[in-house]
Design brief:
It is a single chain. The protein is of the alpha/beta class. About 45% of the residues lie in helices and about 20% in strands. The strands form two sheets. Strands 3-2-1-4-5 form a five-stranded mixed sheet, sandwiched between helices. A hairpin with a 4-residue loop joins strand 1 and strand 2. Helix 2 packs parallel to helix 3. The protein is globular. The structure holds 5'-O-[(R)-(carboxyoxy)(hydroxy)phosphoryl]adenosine (KG4) and zinc ion. The site of zinc ion has 5 residues, from helix 4.
């Protein structure tokens, strides 16, 4: 059987990224051009600046992905692009660029959901992982607990009722004076701190597997502002450590609840996976490892460089869509609020 080679482009936020993926599992090239230096000055992503930067980068980033793979556009089986969710202007850059490129090369065009891409990063890191499995998707805009029933088939088990975990990390980091993007910086700082008990509330949600981060975030911001007003020197590392632990425990607690609920059923959790930018968090990785270890469940995690936005994960997700014949025509548009389920 011939190999299926997919050239994939990702432009949903602040990374222009392209990759060539073989048979959904093997990375032949993976080029990530980050815009972080452009947005740092503003403390967050500025949508118009992001769009302008994508406009000038799509061309050379995809060209480099092909060159790094030692292949030409003609040798590709199909082309893929993230069509949502994300910033509308940023998505439009990638969607329009890839529509034109695929059409000019005479290749099928595969639209990919960005969140499905994050889940699929696990197929690249763990070639033996196959559905069904349970996946905790934690990114800058999403916090979902999902059941991956099959390739491209998802059931929602729980979700955040307010902020996403990554968003909460970024806000907490910002109030501690850490530069954008705050999540990874807060993770580093937390490693040098001590946990401060009784500082943050325990989040409560109505849905059994739902999450809530806004109470934690607000309590944290109020505490830091109070210390600031009192002129107290902030114990920044301790604060970072406390926030990281509270978020991680909340994420792990709900995952463990699901595991326990299913223990004596005909659908026990057998495989758990992490996905999305926050799955790079060092405490989340180790705590989820402990939780899964306690119940003999195998934990899958994307390699660190595949946790945050990249083109490889889009190329992997696209492969199964391609097998199902899910291609798009030139009417494809950006879908900024596209849902996974
Ligand atoms: O998945 P992603 O790259 O973009 C979205 O699709 O949203 O996730 C980015 C988010 C940001 O909020 C970033 O701060 C967070 O992931 N993040 C982390 C870490 N690395 C990235 N949060 C906590 N600890 C990390 N090590
Ligand atoms: Zn993402």
């Amino acid at each position: 059987m011939n190999d299926t080679l997919i050239l994939a482009l990702e432009t949903s936020c602040d990374e222009t990224a392209a990759a060539v993926i073989r048979n959904g599992r093997e990375i032949l090239s993976n080029v990530v051009h980050t815009q972080i230096p452009l947005h740092t000055l503003y403390g967050g992503v500025v949508p118009e600046i992001a769009s302008r930067a994508h406009t000038t980068a799509c061309d050379w980033v995809t060209e480099k992905a092909l060159t790094d793979a030692g292949l030409t556009a003609r040798e590709m089986t199909a082309m893929a692009v993230t069509c949502g969710p994300g910033l509308v202007g940023a998505l439009l850059c990638g969607v329009n660029w890839m529509k034109a490129y695929a059409w000019a090369c005479g290749k099928p065009l595969i639209p990919v959901n960005h969140i499905e891409g994050h889940v699929s990063a696990n197929y690249l890191t763990s070639p033996d992982l196959e559905p069904p499995f349970t996946c905790l998707v934690v990114s800058g805009g999403h916090s979902h607990l999902v059941e991956v029933e099959d390739y491209g088939v998802y059931t929602l088990l729980g979700r955040t009722v307010d902020d996403a975990a990554g968003e909460a990390f970024d806000k907490a980091a910002r109030v501690l004076g850490l530069p954008y993007p705050g999540g990874p910086r807060l993770d580093e700082l937390a490693a040098r701190g001590q946990f401060l008990p009784d500082l943050l509330p325990h989040p409560k949600t109505q849905g059994r597997y739902d999450y809530s981060f806004s109470g934690l975030k607000t309590a944290f911001l109020n505490h830091v502002n109070k210390l600031d007003q009192q002129g107290v020197k902030l114990p920044r590392a301790d604060l970072a450590c406390t926030f990281r632990q509270a978020v991680t425990e909340h994420l792990c607690e709900k995952a463990e609840l699901l595991i326990r609920d299913r223990l004596e059923t005909d659908r026990p959790v057998q495989r758990m996976a992490l996905a999305g930018g926050v799955s790079a968090n060092s405490l989340l990785r180790s705590r989820m490892g402990e939780v899964c270890g306690k119940y003999g469940i195998r934990l899958f995690m994307p390699a660190l460089k595949l946790c945050t936005d990249n083109g490889a994960m889009i190329g992997s997700a696209a492969y199964w869509r391609y097998l199902r014949g899910e291609t798009a025509d030139l009417s494809l548009n950006a879908q900024p609020a596209l849902k996974l389920i």
